[in-house]
Design brief:
Number of helices of chain B: 11
Structural class of chain A: alpha/beta
Number of helices of chain A: 10
Radius of gyration of chain B: 19 Å
Number of strands of chain B: 2
Radius of gyration of chain A: 17 Å
Strand order of the largest sheet of chain A: 6-7-8-3-9-10
CATH class of one domain in chain A: Alpha Beta
Helix content of chain A: 25-40%
Distance between the termini of chain A: 28 Å
Oligomer: heterodimer
Order of helices and strands of chain B: HHHHEEHHHHHHH
Shape of chain A: globular
Distance between the termini of chain B: 50 Å
CATH topology of one domain in chain A: Rossmann fold
Strand content of chain B: under 5%
Structural class of chain B: mainly alpha
Shape of chain B: globular
């Protein structure tokens, strides 16, 4: 961890209501790494991602991306710096076709359609279907594919496997591994512990709005105390 | 009387004409509300100002067609200025504040037009090319009213094309579905919203111009049409072109037929319809569907 982090959170406090409070979160995502945020429901994982995206206001502390201070920046400006967000609810637009989702952002250097259709063959078949006509797994793939059209330098994934059948989880895992092999930096929130430990280089454990532990998946695997107290595994 | 084909043709055309005016007024209000949860009660005022600007431009240029081009542009400009100095700052406020401020603007507009143009009613002549009547299915009907219907249909087709086939249209639809996600794609939703708001003002101004030769122009002419427009948005469901089209058609027809068949119940029919829709489908007839 000698290289400066691509994304740095420095003692960040954020909240938008009583049950979503972050206290003094400091963490770092190095360029090229995959970092997972683990923790129970309500630990503050999604809120941390939303604070990075400028969706939840930061009350204290600083956020830095590639050396630039992005604290308090509007969401669309954060996105333009190269942070792509796949929200927990997937954020698929009901009234847009798959094709429109993939052409909406229109960012230079983003994944072209051929490359997306190659990586996500299901989306090629569903080109003219609208958001509401897709299965949960297809919506998740569309949300990830759409994020890749933004030419991201950091991909943020909020529970990408939530509510999906095992066979679809396996497909998502294969895509995540492929993106990792290509050197894409990722910050990931997961409840699915095996999935997270499979692709993450480093793990932060959140509990009640604070960072409780950090280390490698292997070290976490060996620490029964942390797993029992903060993950309930 | 109800089965007399001549009566049906004339009243249906009257209903369509009212529907088209309501469509021009409601589509802007509906999409703006769908995108930003922002309700502009002064939307009817823009319609009235459109009619008055048409009056002035007919006086200066002696041409309806010049008025048809200039007045909606003037209204859009006024809308843009109001957005920049006032409404932009209202967006993160509570809905009640938005309602109060834009409600206040109705009175400001009322007094402003009275100061500029006086309290007496005015009218503008029907343009020569459209003055007269044509025979529709054996019934004589004023040409100008058919022009209103044709203009409404043209705008509807153009908006449909713009919403479904252009990138701005896709951004607008996406913004109605999930504004936060549009921002997360690096798109400035506020700017798209501003363009939509101005287009909505332009359409309200257009409705004011085309109404001017058939209705009289007076301070307060905006109130009855504003109420009908709000009912259209509620009945159709905010945020969608389909909702505005169907809402306008239903309200235009029910109001027109209600007034000739049961004049003593004229207004009641509209409110009863709205109440029924709210009871059965509180989200409106064609709400924007959600993917999740």
């Amino acid at each position: 961890m000698s290289a400066p982090g691509l994304l740095v959170l420095d003692t960040v406090d954020a909240f938008y209501d009583r049950s979503h409070v972050l206290q003094s979160i400091s963490m770092e995502v190095e360029s090229g790494a995959v970092v997972a945020l683990l923790g129970r429901n309500g630990a503050g994982k999604s809120t941390t991602l939303k604070a990075v995206m400028g969706i939840v206001p930061v009350r204290a502390g600083r956020l830095r991306f590639d050396g630039d201070d992005i604290t308090g920046l509007a969401t669309h400006r954060v996105a333009r710096l190269g942070i792509a967000y796949v929200p927990e609810d997937r954020g698929v637009f009901a009234s847009l076709t798959v094709h429109e989702h993939l052409t909406l952002a229109n960012v230079r250097g983003g994944w072209p359609l051929e490359r997306i259709h190659d990586a996500f063959p299901r989306l090629a078949d569903r080109r003219d279907h609208r958001g509401t006509q897709l299965s949960g797994g297809e919506q998740q793939m569309l949300s990830i594919a759409r994020a890749l059209t933004l030419a991201p330098r950091l991909l943020i994934l909020d529970e990408p496997t939530e509510g999906l059948a095992p066979v679809i989880v396996e497909e998502i895992a294969a895509i995540a591994e492929r993106l990792k092999a290509e050197g894409l930096t990722m910050l990931l929130v997961e409840q699915n512990y095996p999935f997270a430990s499979r692709i993450a280089d480093r793990v932060y454990v959140l509990g009640k709005g604070r960072i409780r532990w950090e280390g490698t998946p292997a070290a976490l695997d060996a620490d029964e105390e942390i797993k029992r107290t903060w993950l309930g595994v | 009387m109800l089965l007399d084909p001549g009566f049906l043709i004339v009243q249906t055309l009257n209903g369509l004409q009212l529907s088209m005016l309501l469509f021009l007024l409601s589509i802007g209000l509906s999409v703006v509300f769908g995108m930003m949860n922002f309700i502009n009660l002064a939307h009817g005022t823009l319609y009235m100002v459109g009619a008055y600007l048409a009056l002035s431009s007919v006086r200066w240029f002696d041409s309806y067609w010049v008025a048809l081009v200039l007045a909606p542009l003037g209204v859009a400009l006024i809308g843009a200025v109001f957005y920049a100095v006032l409404l932009r700052h209202m967006q993160r406020q509570s809905p009640m504040r938005q309602v109060l401020v834009t409600f206040g603007l109705i009175f400001v507009g009322f007094d402003a037009v009275r100061m500029v143009w006086g309290a007496l009613p005015h009218t503008i002549p029907i343009p020569a090319a459209l003055d007269g009547s044509v025979t529709v299915f054996g019934e004589i009907y004023p040409t100008y009213r058919l022009f209103i219907i044709a203009l409404g249909v043209t705008v509807l087709i153009a908006l449909h094309f713009g919403l479904e086939r252009t990138r701005l249209g896709a951004v607008v639809r996406a913004g109605v579905d999930d504004r936060r996600m549009v921002a997360a794609l690096g798109i400035d939703v506020e700017r798209a919203f501003f363009l939509v708001f101005c287009l909505g003002c332009w359409l309200a101004g257009l409705a004011g111009v085309v109404s001017a030769p058939v209705f009289s122009i007076f301070p307060g002419m905006d109130m009855s049409i504003l109420i009908l427009t709000l009912i259209v948005v509620v009945v159709g469901g905010p945020g969608s072109l389909k909702g505005a089209v169907v809402g306008s058609f239903v309200i235009g027809m029910v109001d027109t037929y209600g007034q000739v068949l049961a004049p003593e119940l004229a207004r009641v029919t509209i409110y009863a319809l709205m109440a029924a829709v709210l009871l059965v489908r509180p989200q409106g007839l064609f709400p924007v569907s959600q993917a999740h």
